[in-house]
Design goal:
224 residues; mainly alpha; elongated; 8 helices; 76% helix
Length: 224
C-alpha cells in the first residue's frame, strides 16, 4: 500500500512507529499539500460570489494552479518514501524501501567493493536530497498562492488563507532539514553546496513571504 492510500489515523500511527516511512520528508509534503488545499478552499468559497466578480477570473486561475500543486505534493509524499534519508532508515538495510537502504547494505570488504559502495551511496544521497528540494519548491509556490488568496479571496475565509501560508512555511522549513541531512553526508562537496544554496535561497525568499501573509491576515482579524 502506498503512503497516500493510508487513512489519516494509519498515517499517524505509522509515523509514530519505528517504521522507516513515512518520515519528515513525506510529512512535509503532506503538510504542504494540506496548506495548498486550504488555499484552494478559500478560492472555492470565493468563486461565484457577486461581491468578488471582479476577481473571479483570477481566483479561478489560482484554483487551477492550486489543484495541480496539491496533486504534485501528494505524489511527493510517496516519492519521498522511495528515497528516504539515512536517519529515517535507522538500522534497516532492506532494499525494499529506497536506494539509500540498498547502498548502505552493500559490501565494502575489498577496495573495489568499497569504491562501488561509495559511488552508489553518493548517487543515492543526491537522489534523497532532490525529493525534499522538490517539496521545498512546491511549498514555495504554495506560499505565493496563499498570499494571493489572502489578498483576493473572500474575507470570510481569510483566516484559512493565513493558515495555508503557515502550513506551507512549516513544510518548507521541514523539507529543508531533509535536504541538509543528506547533503551533509555527500562526498562531492561542490554538489552538496549547490543543493544547500538552492535550499537556503528558497528559505530566504519564502519564509518572510509566509510571515507577511500571516501578519497581514492576523492584522485584518485583530483590526490592527
Amino acid at each position: 500500500m502506498e503512503i497516500n492510500d493510508l487513512s489519516c489515523a494509519q498515517f499517524l500511527a505509522q509515523l509514530a512507529s519505528k517504521a522507516p516511512t513515512p518520515g519528515g520528508g513525506g510529512t512535509a509534503a503532506l503538510v504542504g499539500a494540506a496548506g495548498v488545499a486550504l488555499g484552494n478552499m478559500v478560492g472555492c468559497l470565493t468563486t461565484g460570489k457577486k461581491k468578488y466578480a471582479a476577481v473571479e477570473a483570477d481566483i479561478q486561475a489560482l484554483n487551477t494552479k492550486a489543484d495541480a500543486l496539491r496533486k504534485e505534493l501528494e505524489a511527493l509524499v510517496d516519492e519521498d518514501a522511495l528515497r528516504a534519508s539515512p536517519v529515517e532508515f535507522g538500522l534497516v538495510t532492506s532494499d525494499a524501501f529506497a536506494p539509500l537502504a540498498a547502498a548502505y547494505g552493500l559490501p565494502k570488504d575489498t577496495p573495489e567493493q568499497a569504491a562501488h559502495k561509495a559511488a552508489v551511496l553518493e548517487a543515492a544521497l543526491d537522489g534523497a536530497s532532490a525529493v525534499p528540494l522538490q517539496i521545498m519548491e512546491k511549498c514555495a509556490e504554495g506560499i505565493a498562492l496563499a498570499g494571493q488568496y489572502a489578498a483576493k479571496g473572500s474575507v470570510l475565509a481569510v483566516s484559512d488563507a493565513g493558515c495555508a501560508a503557515v502550513l506551507c512555511k512549516a513544510a518548507l522549513q521541514a523539507a529543508s532539514l531533509n535536504v541538509f541531512i543528506n547533503t551533509k553526508l555527500m562526498a562531492d562537496r561542490a554538489r552538496a553546496a549547490a543543493l544547500d544554496a538552492r535550499a537556503d535561497a528558497l528559505l530566504a525568499e519564502f519564509v518572510p513571504q509566509a510571515d507577511e501573509v500571516f501578519n497581514a491576515v492576523s492584522g485584518k482579524l485583530r483590526n490592527k
